[in-house]
Automatic annotation (TrEMBL):
Residues 407-438 have a biased composition (Low complexity). Residues 407-446 are annotated as: Disordered. Pfam families: INTS15. Coiled coil: none annotated. The lineage of its organism: Eukaryota, Metazoa, Chordata, Craniata, Vertebrata. PANTHER family: INTEGRATOR COMPLEX SUBUNIT 15 (PTHR14540). This is Integrator complex subunit 15.
């Protein structure tokens, strides 16, 4: 395609961009049809994209061309139509990659700016092919850029335009893949370590409603990802489960901290609104874990692929230790209230650990858990979970998958079977639960002990 540059130079910026998109579509169609494997866009074509669509200067002596706001809007509409009219997904994905795959150069900022506007428009006008391409982009791109895109969408639909949240919420049924990746990105972005990193109420409500409507939504990427390749270490997690557990566990202390600061600043407290939301989310996450045994067994992955990573849990317990120390030292609430919130936090952590281990989402020993929870204060339920039997899933005589995002650091890889600890089957059932929740069968070491799941808090 390098020979078309001379024909593009005399055109105005919008006309040149439109013409290049047309030629790019034809070029990629021919590339796919040639059967070349893998089909790969050449560097000359990528340079044309940077020059005539992203408007990166060809060299230092050539000033970059700029579009007006109206021209940029027109370009976005043209791109939406281009992806909508192209019926072959392979062509669309290659074209999206040619436009927005990060190259590590100065054009990347232009790529990110244009990408954010294009995906935001695709949500507004329901362009599903673009959302599907964006889902793939979120799966393959460094998490730093994924959360930048997520931030743009949260700003557009949860902050800047009042009443626009339903527009974003409606894509749940249109593009589940995009929704799953979006949830993973926002749970990575908002880690609840500060008020600025606390999800907006509208965003939280939307995600809770999505998962309540369809718990399998958070597993869509995992269910649709070929397990032959490896996940880049810097990419988003394969599922948002780790981020959702972090939200549920940290919320009681994080929102109490933020609400006290808000009251000091004269604003209203939002803890009463968020409390039931996080309780509902916590219940939904546990229900997702309980879907996993059948799914993992069908794929032959039970005991081989950890969807909840030990590194994520270690970071969570470290954050919890800090939050609990802050609550003890700086709380203005009654000591009883602070103690209740701390215990709720630790109860949720214990419940998540136990249900994740029993259903094959977390592959580790109780010794590993005791090590990462050693700085946390006493909690009856957590102590019960930590003192349970050793559980080594690599006693199934199959190696861990290289596909695991952190296989090199996986507890399966780093902790060989210890002969001093008797092996237990990977189908160890859950703790005895009150009769009102019969879905939690009895676990031998916890027989007769209640499983205090309290979603109403």
């Amino acid at each position: 395609m390098g020979d078309i540059r001379q024909s593009l130079l005399p055109r105005d910026v919008l006309s040149a961009a439109k013409e290049l998109l047309y030629h790019l579509d034809i070029y990629i169609c021919n590339l796919v049809q040639s059967g070349r494997q893998p089909p790969q866009v050449d560097s000359k074509t990528l340079e044309l994209v940077e020059e005539f669509i992203l408007h990166a200067p060809k060299d230092r002596n050539t000033p970059g061309r700029r579009m007006s706001a109206l021209q940029e809007l027109q370009l976005l509409e043209i791109m939406c139509s281009c992806f909508q009219e192209q019926s072959r997904d392979t062509v669309r994905q290659l074209m999206f990659s040619a436009l927005f795959s990060l190259q590590g150069n100065q054009a990347d900022e232009s790529r990110m700016a244009l990408l954010g506007k294009l995906v935001s428009m695709a949500i507004a006008v329901g362009r599903i092919p673009i959302l599907e391409c964006a889902a793939t982009w979120l799966q393959r791109t460094h998490r730093v850029y994924c959360i930048r895109l997520a931030q743009v969408l949260v700003d557009d639909y949860c902050s800047m335009v009042p009443g626009s949240v339903p527009t974003l919420q409606n894509i749940h049924s249109a593009s589940p893949r995009f929704c799953c990746q979006f949830i993973t990105a926002v749970t990575t972005l908002y880690d609840l370590n500060s008020e600025e990193l606390t999800p907006p109420l509208e965003l939280l409500q939307m995600i809770v409603s999505w998962i309540q409507d369809d718990p399998r939504l958070v597993l869509i990427t995992f269910l649709n990802t070929p397990l032959s390749g490896s996940q880049p270490i810097s990419s988003l997690d394969l599922t948002p489960l780790g981020g959702l557990v972090r939200w549920c566990v940290k919320a009681p202390l994080a929102y109490r901290r933020d609400s006290k600061q808000a009251l000091t600043n004269g604003t209203t407290q939002n803890e009463p609104e968020t409390g039931p939301l996080f309780s509902a989310l916590h219940l939904s996450v546990l229900q997702v874990f309980m879907l996993l045994p059948n799914i993992l067994n069908e794929k032959g992955l039970f005991g081989r692929l950890a969807l909840l990573q030990m590194e994520s849990l270690a970071a969570l317990t470290s954050d919890l230790s800090r939050l609990l120390d802050q609550a003890d030292k700086h709380t203005h609430a009654s000591s009883a209230d602070t103690h209740a919130l701390s215990q709720l936090t630790l109860d949720r952590l214990a419940q998540a650990l136990q249900v994740a281990m029993a259903n094959g989402a977390l592959l580790c020993s109780r010794e590993d858990l005791r090590a990462i929870c050693s700085r946390l204060p006493h909690n009856n339920l957590l102590q019960l979970v930590l003192s349970g039997p050793v559980m080594y899933y690599n006693n199934i005589h199959t190696p861990p998958l290289a596909f695991s995002p952190h296989a090199a650091h996986s507890p399966i890889a780093s902790h060989p079977t210890h002969p001093t600890h008797p092996a237990h089957t990977p189908h160890t059932p859950l703790a005895t639960h009150p009769s009102s929740h019969p879905q939690y069968p009895a676990q031998p070491f916890m027989t007769g002990m209640p499983f205090p799941f309290r979603p109403s808090h």
